[in-house]
Amino acid sequence: MSLGQKLAPHLPFLRRYARALTGSQSHGDNYVRASLEAIVAAPDDFPKDVDVRVGLYRTFQAIWNSTNYDEMESQAGDADREAIAQARLSGITPLSRQALLLTAMEGFTVTDTAYLIETTPEEVEALVADAIAEIDRQTRTDVLIIEDEPIIAMDLETIVRDLGHSVSGVAVTRDEAVAQAHAHRPGLVLADIQLADDSSGIDAVKDILTEFNVPVIFITAFPERLLTGERPEPTFLITKPFQRSTVKAAISQALFFNAATIEA
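Request: output the structure for the sequence above.
Response:
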């Protein structure tokens, strides 16, 4: 099996990480593209003493650390995201966010994360703790949950409240979700894809976004279906069955780029 074939299954998830890190599909994909170009240009330099997924992310990290984010191609909306990110970064370092995303969202061990960001496992644990504490302090909001499975909805509601946020409502259909969003404007939406009456969480979110902008985290058992590269994709996506730490990381990053929670 060629190196390209080995890397292919991991690319959708690297793109997810890149978008969560930058808050932008276009910027994130630019970093992934640059990483692949580096691998193609010098395949012998690809790490051979680690798992291929770890090697791929290590290559990405090298590109991320050596590139000036401000010089990347920008598109509509990205300037706002960058301004929000810069406001956040006054209180939290990028390395802390990387450590949080790599461990909680991408599922790397503390040891692998230490290798990826070139530090020690102890420092990774400290970085993650710092990131969680600072982002939690900065961000508080009302969350709309769109989920038709009662147990999962209750689990999400508990996670949201434990993180210090409020739940503005729990909807099980597209129409319910839109009505609740209009009645009480949320600061964040957690949306399942397939809903109770065969309606779509994606359609519900589209309806909500026609009225106002709000960060959205999609929840699905089949993330590959939304990570095709063929259309605009969700920046924040978690997979069922999910871990509490994954939901927490996704919520933290989604709110990280939400201007409404920046302190004046």
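Residues 99 and 175 are 38 Å apart (CA to CA).
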